[in-house]
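Case study B.
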Amino acid sequence: MPLTQAREITPAQRLDNLRYAIRDLVGLANEVKKQGNKILFLNVGDPNIFDFATPAHVIEAAYRAMRDNKNGYAPSDGVPEALEAIRAEAEQSGISSIQDVFITNGAGEAVDTCLTALLNPGENLLTPSPDYPLYTAVLCKTGAEMNSYFQNEEDGWQPDLEDMRRKINPRTRAIILINPNNPTGALCTRKMLEQIAELARQHNLLIIADEIYNKLILDGGEHISIAAVAPDIPVVTLRLSANHPEQYAIKVALEGPQDHLIEVRRKLSARRDITVEACNAIPRMSCVPPRGAFYAFPKIDIPEGDNVWVKELLLQKHILVVHGSGFGQKPGTKHFRIVFLPQEEVLKKAYAEIGDFMKGRY
Ligand SMILES: Cc1ncc(COP(=O)(O)O)c(C=O)c1O
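Model:
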């Protein structure tokens, strides 16, 4: 039916600064696809579209719950057995002073709830740069300001503590820490966590610890929860979460067999190695090795903006990655974020194409 209103319905002004780089080029990618090209989507971190599968015992638990008619409203704070399992898991990772556990629909809802509950207009939040765009997107609607601290590429993308210290002002309310990090894959050292905790202590700040990739630590490294090193500081620790029937899978997912993760980490380590080696072999490109998750954030030395570079890569090579400027980065530097989930052959082919693209362009 044709629209009858004379005036356009315009979005709220608070959306003016809203950016979500990860999906920026999806419309263009779909156009390129319609022209008969096959696009390699390396922009979204979704393991199940590659050769990673949800373990059978987790599917079974969710399926059983749906069959048992657990399909209405979940209890407000979550299903008791899931809450208990999360509490036990947190205690096992050294978090001793747990005040409260509750389950949301994805970490995204937890972030939205926390920031909306915490921030007044004019206050600010210390967010990492680069960061996962969810935080800056939610900030748009609170009227609070983004106050980003750099992470040091020269230091394996660890947070730049001095920069963080400099950025804290009387209107700063909290520090966001993404560990392991998206998009860089960095894993924080214990010393770094202790120093960040000390800053929070001195300035009375809340820490929001996004630790959703805590089980995907590569190289046999150790993930340390900041709440475990700073039991005296208010910390909101985020875990991957679920809707109602899936909540019944949380207990078996946390307490049941974990052996599938050995194979997952083996695959991811090999794919990370391919990524780092390939990117460091391409002229004008370098990559800090990610220590966790499945993202890499290679640096590119190019004259144009990284958003232009990403668009051209899509149009010429049908590979979709995300421009680094969409995550925030040090002025003058350029990057892109790539998801290294695909099978080795697919990745190798993609890096060959990216290398070819660079050679042809510069
Ligand atoms: C670092 C980080 N935090 C939060 C989220 C959002 O998590 P969810 O999909 O559970 O809302 C993601 C998703 O990719 C992420 O990478």
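The chain has a mean pLDDT of 94. The remaining cases will be described in the next quarterly update.
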